Backbone:
């Protein structure tokens, strides 16, 4: 697959890559650098990509490998960040429900979910982001993480169980105040 094809198709995934980079680095500047490094590495390796390959999945593998190399080089452990508030489109919520109380309660729920995801161990956080936010298949996640699809499925099941437990045990203080 040629470099020009990579350049054309790869740019369609820049937002998803940036979101994943933010998950990995927790810092905007570091995420931007990681995205740039990913595209540089992808351009260098474009000729190695077979025709018909899943470019999005391949770019995520390239990004994760670049990030792991950075982590090893810096001799630091991995760090993750929760979802950005910018990802929420409040105008859609207002259009759907003009009730300010419902809007407020939904915002509280989103914050609780973000906090719960941030509280997960690293191995669970990563599969939740890749599956539930980025929409990768189990096999694509397995390719990105370099593990069997069965491991991805079991990690995701455990992560969702932990999230469910955290969210079911939350205190309804904010909801009671809002009512």
Residues:
């Amino acid at each position: 697959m040629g470099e020009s094809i990579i350049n054309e198709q790869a740019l369609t995934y820049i937002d998803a890559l940036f979101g994943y980079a933010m998950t990995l680095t927790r810092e905007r500047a570091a995420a931007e650098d990681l995205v740039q490094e990913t595209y540089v590495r992808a351009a260098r390796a474009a000729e190695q990509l077979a025709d018909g390959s899943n470019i999005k999945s391949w770019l995520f593998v390239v990004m994760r490998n670049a990030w792991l190399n950075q982590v090893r080089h810096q001799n630091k452990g991995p760090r993750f960040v929760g979802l950005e508030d910018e990802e929420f489109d409040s105008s859609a919520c207002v259009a759907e429900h003009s009730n300010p109380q419902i809007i407020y309660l939904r915002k509280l729920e989103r914050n609780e979910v973000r906090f719960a995801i941030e509280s997960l161990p690293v191995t669970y956080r990563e599969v939740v982001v890749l599956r539930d936010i980025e929409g990768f298949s189990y096999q694509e996640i397995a390719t990105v993480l370099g593990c069997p699809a069965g491991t991805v499925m079991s990690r995701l099941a455990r992560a969702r169980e932990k999230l469910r437990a955290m969210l079911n045990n939350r205190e309804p203080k904010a909801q009671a105040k809002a009512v």
Q: What stands out?
A: The CA atoms of residues 66 and 152 lie 21 Å apart. The chain has two domains: 3-74, 88-178. The radius of gyration is 18 Å. Residues 55-74 form the longest helix (20 residues).
